[in-house]
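SAMPLE LOG
Freezer: B-3
Tube label: C17
Construct: single chain, 188 aa
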Amino acid sequence: MERKKTIAIISGSIRTGRVSHRVALFFQKFITENNMADVALLDLKALNFPLSEERLKYLPQPSNEILFFSSEIKRADAVIVVSPEYNSGYPASVKNAIDLLYDEWYRKPIGIVSVSDGNFGGMHALQMLQTVFLKVKASLVPATFPVPLVHANYDENGNPTDKERTEKRAKLFLAEIMKSIQSNELLK
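STRUCTURE (predicted):
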């Protein structure tokens, strides 16, 4: 019997009143309810990393939160990064989390979810994140999941206002993630 896959979801915003976390909650619930994979929600606000001065492998005394984050990324078969877009970029919290690790990202399937209050769904942040993940040799999932007008489209518990349409998009996005996991396993 094949083991159940694990998907780590990084909730990237640490701001007070953050709304991109709603989308992370949606994916956590959707994946779990549809029995698609085990889920590890890695909330950067809860982990409260310090600004990293160096990569994990060079830190003399990494915090338990950093070690936990690293182990969950290593353990995951794929990672979904849920990032807001601030001023046409992604937040420092996401960059800090990416730069903290290196080997952990190698060939790891990464699905990017970009979130915005505006109409364009965080496309600038999405493109920048694609570039960064390519640089650390992660395996980008071809499908993306831009979320425009997040306040109007998700409630504080991660429930979408247009459930049918959102779930249809999520199924397609997650199907690509699962294909990327299978492709990655063939390379091992």
